[in-house]
Amino acid sequence: MASAREEILARIRNAKVPAAQPVVRGYHREGPGGVELFAERVADYRAVVHVVSNVPEALTSLRGKRIVAPAGVPEEWLIEGVTWLREPLSIEELDQADGVLTGCAVAIADTGTIVLDGGEAQGRRALTLLPDYHVCVVRADQIAASVPEALQRLEPTRPLTFISGPSATSDIELSRVEGVHGPRTLEVLVVDQQ
Amino acid sequence: MARNPVTWLGSPTFPKAAKAALNDTQLRQNLRKATGTIRERRAAAVTEMTDWEQLRVAGEQIKNDVLARLDTLLVELEESVTARGGVVHWARDAEEANLIVLGLCREENANEVVKVKSMATAEIGLNEALEAGGVHAIETDLAELIVQLGNDRPSHILVPAIHRNRSEIREIFQRRMGVEVSDEPADLAEAARVYLREKFLTTKVAISGANFAVADTGSIVVLESEGNGRMCLTLPETLITVMGIEKLVPTWQDLEVFLQLLPRSSTAERMNPYTSVWTGVTPGDGPQKFHLVLIDNGRTATLRDSVGRQALRCIRCSACLNVCPVYERTGGQSYGSVYPGPIGAILTPQLVGDMHDPQAASLPYASSLCGACFEVCPVRIDIPSVLTHLRAEAVEAKGRTAESVAMAAAAWIFAEASRYEKAQKAGSLARFLAKDGRITSLPWPGSKWTSSRDVPAPPAESFRAWWRKNRG
Amino acid sequence: MRVKVALFATCLTDTFFPSTARAVVRLLERLGCSVEFPLDQTCCGQMHFNTGYREQAKPLARKYTDVFQGYDYVVAPSGSCAGMVREIHPTLGTAPPRTFELAEFLVDVLGVTDVGAWFPHRVTYHPTCHSLRMLGVGDKPLALLRAVKGLDLVELPDSTHCCGFGGTFAVKNAETSTAMLADKMRCVLDTGAEVLSAGDNSCLMHIGGGLSRLRAGVRPVHLAEILASTEEDPWRATP
User: Fold this and answer.
1) Is residue B258 part of a domain?
2) B400 — contact with chain C (CB < 8 Å)?
3) Which of A133, B75, B190, C71 has its CA 20 to 30 A from that of A175?
4) Which residue range or ranges hold the LUD domain (chain A) (predicted)?
């Protein structure tokens, strides 16, 4: 008897689907982009957004005392008066932390999205999932205008997390409420040097 | 061959099921409110995109390309996933898929697993199969949890508990979770958070579906809102992903189309709160064992049908359900399948693959052919055309019936103007049944019409009779 | 030069609503067209096709092409039947002559929106699904109605929602169809209009049949009859 794999592949070939037309990508690849649009779109998700010029200064208003800081977070972000939790951290420690401070890989102005790829200042995925409060620092030059532009900047084989606002659900009467399993508060600091 | 669990055993035909559902005033109220809300929001989310039509066309074309090259793309996906430390399994049908997943759970000695909402696993009846094998599956999506705790069936692709309102959900939660909670959506969401938190932190095996799989990189993509998906995809040691073979896109770039089409079509957001992408296993981050189960379960049979195969372009957004005037009134359970609404009416009978099944054969008729579904479909599935195509198959399967005899007679009459004119004259005699210019009661099958509508009295003179007299 | 038009009355209008077809003739002739009615015409085959009797629809599609071949324009007072001809007949192996729904023909081909009509009534308009989504007739009927003297046009809430007719759907899924009809009637009654208009007598027969059962006092009148009505020769209810 043929394996399931061989049989399914044979069934597909027997279906004799004709070759498709070439894909026409007539949609926009670019967009207006920019800090202002990004900030506006993030705020639409009921996330907290601040456009700042100095990160350590802005971090003085951090809520919480015990904050996770992934590897690669710049030294000057680790301000005094906060207990910075560093890896290795257990699931329980993450669950009990007050929040997490990260950078990001890319952001998208069109959709108000931040994307984490586990790289510098982001850490493994659990770090930004278990603490109830996520502060994400986005540099102006990390903001892509559109979804196509953002995907082009990303390395697909890294573990990616696209975040658009705090966790939410529309499962009750299809009206959106914020705050389910993921962080209930998302704070985005957009660094604009100008 | 075992029965395909995509339809629920013992479900009545659509008209019968609908008749009962239409009497449920609470259901009618809940659906009217929910679909009305989402319709308006979707329209707004789509209107702000000036390139929406171009995105739809690209989405359609990419998916057509996937269907045309499905064999090579699946092999490519298998290679990329394997190269990154994942294990790929193939399942011809539901039974085979369920056995594979159960075997994997047993290998991990898991008697409890957490699940991310997945249509593929609902379609194959995975939870029931696992339960029979001694493995309890915990649904973690809020709406799935509501259905599971309520011992209910799903009624919507995106929001399986759309037929429940807040006070019904409150009642289910109080009864099954043993907590006091208000009927505020935020409080209900909080209750679910507390209820599931411990499970997320301790369960060793998770099961998910997939929205997309990228053939050339081996990346799997899951879109969600609540963070339950991230929990399942990140914290357990083992991840088992079950997906239909058509969920592919050829390249990473292709995702740029679907990540724009899907959120706006389904939840009417510019972007859903969370999208996770992973490729095989990443050392030090997330599950260190990853299994991908590819299921056919009627898809290759659907692929053979040159008209019907476009249903395989579906990305499960549920926009067609939300705009469908039939779905809005009958609810999803009337369709007797995990795939309700317009897409269900064309996908379910094809996956069942047997138009002699009266329930499956009744589904393509569950539409007034108004076309609202085609208008909103992000991958341009011409649902009305597939509906009429499948109706033709249903008619063929049924053979000779009272209806087919009447239709043949009508066709014979319409074939010649002279016969048609004679029939017109004979029919015009029905005006003597009329009172005050209307007929209020006709014998069967006309009674199906006059049960709720009058018929105008036929005029003494048809238009052609007038024309002949005055212009001929 | 006078535009030569063949009228495709549709079997439903020919048999049950002759006043609509007479109104089309009057209207088109008033606008300078010469109108012919080929007596060999019967039915476009939509009922057969939509119910799953595709094979039986094929000879009817061929017949349509045979009957109307050679005319510059075929005009039908039905979005649904015009849609069947334009969108479906080509899939049944025929190449039908150019066929238009009435409002499209007036606006796109003749280039008129003010047809010189007079209709002093409060009217609401239901855009039928096939005229809207198969043909893309859009706002053309409304533009025509807005130009009618004396007419008080009131917007129909949720106008784009299906009335529940759907051909044999109305009997095969009679209960669901009725539920859709109930909502449509509620919207119509909410407008306070005395006349409900549409470009399809099938949908009008459905909504009108429901309104008649309720003795709601709202009269269904096809768009053609409103546009044909003038001060000299006003619309009147015909038996």
Assistant:
1) yes
2) no
3) A133
4) 92-191
